[in-house]
Amino acid sequence: MATRGENPSLPPEMIINILKRLPVKSLLRLQSVCKDWKNLFKTPYFIDEHYHHSAQKTPLLISFVLAGNPRSSSLCLLRHEMESVEVERIPAMGSLKRACVIIGSSNGLVCVILGYDYNEGSPPSLLLLNPSTREVRQLPRPTINDGTYMFWGWGFGFSPIVKDYKIVTIHHQFYFMNNSQINLDNIWVCGAEVYSFRTGSWKVLEFDIIKSVRFQSKPVTVNGTMFWLGLQCEDDHPHVMIVSFDLSREVFKLIPLPSLTSNTHTYANMLGDYEGKLAMLQCYISHIYDSSIDIWVLEEGSGAYGKIWYLTKKYCIGRTSYPAYGKIWLYPLCFWRNEIVCQNISTMCREDDPAYNVYNLTTNNDLKKFHLSESTEKMNGIFNYVESLVPVSGT
């Protein structure tokens, strides 16, 4: 307790405990209060304390929203407020007025491909953003010019083992059909690279093990490992595989996928991070304009011949899960804590109703519908996002 004539003060640990609970926007304003606070907010200790506290809350969602002009986009945050989803637009940050694609979000940092067009062939421009602090960093382009940069060949993640952020890009070659469309049955891997933020440089990777893999999904990073869904096409009977890339060891690995119930009406498979575990979502048509989504969690365990992966079915989302909505065809976009964000494919081609839905896995019967502010706007990729003070430089 302060004596008479002394200014009252709080212990430093109590001040930190209070400040770490504030949003980044408030902390940025408080930097002008005193030099000590400004310096505190830049220390790794406070940055970690603030992030870990923020990560306990329901994460935001971040996406680039495309309007009528395909060459323009705006960065948006989606907040889960009670029974609704609120959309907050982030003011343009430098060159982000152009169309962009988010390739990953980790610890408050977002990696973006700028003005991305995979038909151009040349390496695209890359940016690292912290939307909360509004910091932007230009990154070096990949070094390999052979092949094509397909959107599903990009990944961004963090390795807690080596404490380094990394970008992975897989280069593809393919043939065009007579109508100038890509022949999806004739795509193969011709190279791979990884960018380390610690070294600030690109490194060419050994990729022989994935040469015959046809990648089927965008990657997801779980606990320092990046995963893709793919088909191994070495014979006339393609095998469903999971491609893993250990961000610390920088090595690819193929994981045979345990057999699932065969369904000839499957229209999409994707991977996700569900409660810190790798999850697979299998989407199939159950009735005309009705869809079902099975959610499986993949965990590594010990078998008679070493380590194997087990599939455990967690949820099945079907027509009985949302009877009030009638016929609906859902395409999952991402997990949002205990919910899934989906797009209704039956309205996907209707510009007057690009509706999105949030399905609650816990209640098993709650399907909330939301729109972006303009009826013609659509989300171009969507990721979980947690506000942080992590700097874009020195990561």
TrEMBL record:
Residues 4-54 form the F-box domain. CDD domains: F-box_AtFBW1-like. InterPro entries: F-box-assoc_dom_typ3 (IPR013187), F-box-assoc_interact_dom (IPR017451), F-box-like_dom_sf (IPR036047), F-box_dom (IPR001810), Kelch-typ_b-propeller (IPR015915), SCF_F-box_component (IPR050796). Pfam families: F-box, FBA_3. This is F-box domain-containing protein.
